[in-house]
Prior knowledge:
- By secondary structure, this protein is an alpha/beta fold.
- The protein is about 30% helix and about 25% strand.
- It is built from eight helices and 14 strands.
- It has helices at about 25-35, 50-60, 85-100, 150-155, 180-190, 210-215, 225-230, 240-250, and strands at about 5-10, 40-45, 65, 70-75, 75-80, 105, 110-115, 130, 145-150, 165-170, 170-175, 200, 215-220, 235.
- The strands form three sheets. Strands 5-4-3-2-1-12-13-14 form an eight-stranded mixed β-sheet, sandwiched between helices.
- The longest helix is centred in the middle third of the chain and has 13 residues, at about 85-100.
Amino acid sequence: xxRKYIFFDIDGTLLDDNPGGKILExxxxxxxxxxxxxxxxxxxxxxxxxMAMDAAKExxxxxxxxxxxxxxxxxxxxQYIKPIDFVQANxxxxxxxxxxxxxxxxxxxxxVLYTNQSDQKDQKLPVKLAVDESIDFHQVKEIYKVFIxxxxxxxxxxxxxxxxxxxxxxxxxxxEPADKYKGILEMxxxxxxxxxxxxxxxxGLNDISMIDQAPLGIAMGNAIDEVKAAANFITKRNDDxxxxxxxxxxxxxx
Length: 254
């Protein structure tokens, strides 16, 4: 059997949709069998690397494409995380300040976001917000993500240039890398693997691109319609043994 390079999204794919998210016993069993059968198993996520490592450890997976395709971790060793375009990111931050839109900036692989605006409203942020009015984002070393509180009308005030972004919530956009497949290709090349043997599993908005580009893109049964439309195969829901079902269907496990 040809060795497959199989990449799993985290939320809604490896983790079920129940509060707190958990990995099913059937998924643990499937991941073990895939490895036993010689397949390569990895995570592909939009999460920052530090944030993805807990889920990876829980799943017993030590290779990750993180930061929306801009980060590579091999065997628990971080290889790199590429920042977003510095000039364009600062232009957007300046526009947020001009239009009084709350924002928070990821400056590194750490569980804290930064702003220099002391009058910010509460934001839906994954980690704590540090307010430091002395920060000049034009003088920082690198920028990795920008969280902006804005509705669809307010978004029109911003010139995002070529920056990729996601709107996971109605009142927020996140400027972040959104091409997981770019990172997947880089990882497979580092491993001297064959692109034709790449398989991806996903369910959400930031999975559409990788599902569409991969030789074999598998949508979870709970995936959004756009992911299902891009997929080659739709498996069962993530909480109904969907990963195991797909891997048996394609003969990667017994």
